[in-house]
């Protein structure tokens, strides 16, 4: 049986708006122990902010904490859909070099899947370990760790 992302995705997603300041976003990530936050405006996914974005685009650039998250978010979005198979999602994550995948339906963020979600679901451990090894081995210049602006 082919499981879909809707079967394993986290649906309790914290999202922020693009005007929210960097400090506020970092605080939410710390409080909820999450490494990625979707940036949403009027329900539509505009970008994502990862813990790495906070460091490389924020702190390392001496950006004040009062700057808006719009200034550091990744706009090259890789996403999945609830009806996508876990195998398809693993392949997309490996190709895009991302560890977390927003799940979008009708332009709305409805969930997030992480490599951890794949790894704890017994049938998907192979896909998760394959995706992780590919993500660890190579670098995609369009992933959220891209420093070009």
TrEMBL record:
InterPro entries: CBS_dom, CBS_dom_sf, Diverse_CBS-Domain. Pfam families: CBS. Keywords: CBS domain. Residues 9-65, 73-129 form the CBS domain. Residues 129-149 are annotated as: Disordered. Coiled coil: none annotated. PANTHER family: CBS DOMAIN-CONTAINING PROTEIN, CBS DOMAIN-CONTAINING PROTEIN CBSX3, MITOCHONDRIAL. This is CBS domain-containing protein.
């Amino acid at each position: 049986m082919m499981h879909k992302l809707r079967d394993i995705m986290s649906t309790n997603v914290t999202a922020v708006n693009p005007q929210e300041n960097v400090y506020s976003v970092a605080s939410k990530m710390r409080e909820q122990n999450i490494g990625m936050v979707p940036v949403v405006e009027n329900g539509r996914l505009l970008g994502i902010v990862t813990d790495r974005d906070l460091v490389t685009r924020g702190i390392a650039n001496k950006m004040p904490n009062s700057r808006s998250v719009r200034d550091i978010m990744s706009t090259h979005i890789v996403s999945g859909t609830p009806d996508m198979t876990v195998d398809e999602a693993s392949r997309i994550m490996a190709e895009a070099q991302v560890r977390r995948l927003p799940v979008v339906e009708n332009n709305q963020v409805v969930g997030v899947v992480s490599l951890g979600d794949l790894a704890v679901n017994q049938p998907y451990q192979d896909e998760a370990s394959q995706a992780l090894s590919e993500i660890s081995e190579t670098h995609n210049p369009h992933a959220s760790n891209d420093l070009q602006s």
